[in-house]
Every structure is written in C-alpha cells, then in structure tokens.
C-alpha cells in the first residue's frame, strides 16, 4: 500500500524537520538553533513550496505547528496527503469526547482558517474532507488527536497512521 502503511509497503513520506535537519554546524558539531515558525522562510512555507513543486504523490507528516485547515486545503490542492497532530481546536475536543478512534468529517474554511493566507480570502466557504484519529494513550500520556486527508478507513487503518505519526515524533525527539 502507499506511504509505508501495511505489510510490504513502499511509498514516500516527507518529514520537513528532517529535510531542514541539514542545517548542521560543522564547527560546533551541533544542529543550528532555528526558529522554524518565524524564520525566513518559515517551515510551513518550505513545506507548502515543496508540495506545490513535488510531482510525486506524497504523505506529509508534520507536527502541530502546521495546524490549520488552510494548510490541509493547500496540501490536498497540490495532490498530496497530510498527517499531523491537531491542537487547540473545538472539533478536536468534540472528537476526543466521542471516544472514537477514527471519524471522517467535512469542514468549511472560515476567515480564521486563512489568517496566514491573506491573499486567499476567496477560499472562505470551500469545503474539505478530513479524518480525525485518536491514538492510544497510556496511564501517563493522554492520547493524541491526529488529522489526516487519508479518508479511506479500510485502506488506511487508524493504528497504522498513528504508528506512522509516532515514528515522526521519535525522529523529532532525536533531533532534540
């Protein structure tokens, strides 16, 4: 199957933090202290530029710093998929209360979703389909709520997607 999901699978996944991890300071032997969100260009812009120019269908696995329905919209528009953690969102809170592992919903873009995209206000009202996934939690760690554009719940099992996101998270922890 696509994106490294399932037995014998082959696919492409793009981890922006790893892509940017090439900023290694040879003099000190450490990774540069980069401010991805406010740098020039920001990590979000680098990912969207990559998606726009990328000819290979790719799953972008990103952290909650990419939070935003507009970001999801553009990733889909460019023909790719996204898997990311969702934070501070009313829909996320409602999904967590449902105790479901996976749920597909349709979201309408609002003005607040496009604050980082002032040139694209005409997209207000556009609809996108997304899927929420609740990872397994532990007695010490609360489950994470993920959002993805991989809608097919039979083809893309919630547990496989959760494991894929956790793999990305472990890589990010290694950079720290």
SSE topology sketch:
Blueprint lengths: L12 E2 L1 H5 L3 E2 L4 E2 L11 H11 L5 E4 L6 H9 L3 E5 L4 H9 L3 E7 L18 E8 L10 E4 L9 H18 L1
Parallel strand pairs: 1-4, 4-5
Antiparallel strand pairs: 2-3, 5-8, 6-7, 7-8
Summed up:
This protein has 176 residues and is an alpha/beta fold.
Describe the 3D structure.
This protein has about 180 residues and is α/β, with parallel strands linked by helices. It has helices spanning about 15-20, 45-55, 70-75, 90-100, 160-175; strands at about 15, 25, 30, 60, 80-85, 100-110, 125-135, 145-150. The strands form two sheets. The protein has a six-stranded mixed sheet with strand order 1-4-5-8-7-6, sandwiched between helices. A two-stranded antiparallel ribbon has the order 2-3. It is globular, with a radius of gyration of 17 Å. The model is unreliable at about 15-25 and about 30-40 (pLDDT under 50).
């Amino acid at each position: 199957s696509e994106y490294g999901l399932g037995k014998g699978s082959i696919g492409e996944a793009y981890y922006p933090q790893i892509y940017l991890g090439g900023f290694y300071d040879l003099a000190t032997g450490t990774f540069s202290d980069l401010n991805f969100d406010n740098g020039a260009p920001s990590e979000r812009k680098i990912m969207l530029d990559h998606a726009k120019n990328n000819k290979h269908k790719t799953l972008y696995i990103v952290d909650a710093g990419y939070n935003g329905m507009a970001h999801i919209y553009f990733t889909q528009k460019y023909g790719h998929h996204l898997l990311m953690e969702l934070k501070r969102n009313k829909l996320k809170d409602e999904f967590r209360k449902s105790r479901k592992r996976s749920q597909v919903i349709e979201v309408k873009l609002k003005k607040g979703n496009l604050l980082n995209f002032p040139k694209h206000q005409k997209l207000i009202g556009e609809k996108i389909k997304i899927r929420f996934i609740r990872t397994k939690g532990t007695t010490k760690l609360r489950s994470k709520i993920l959002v993805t554009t991989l809608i097919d719940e039979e083809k893309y099992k919630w547990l496989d997607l959760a494991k894929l996101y956790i793999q990305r998270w472990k890589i990010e922890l290694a950079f720290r």
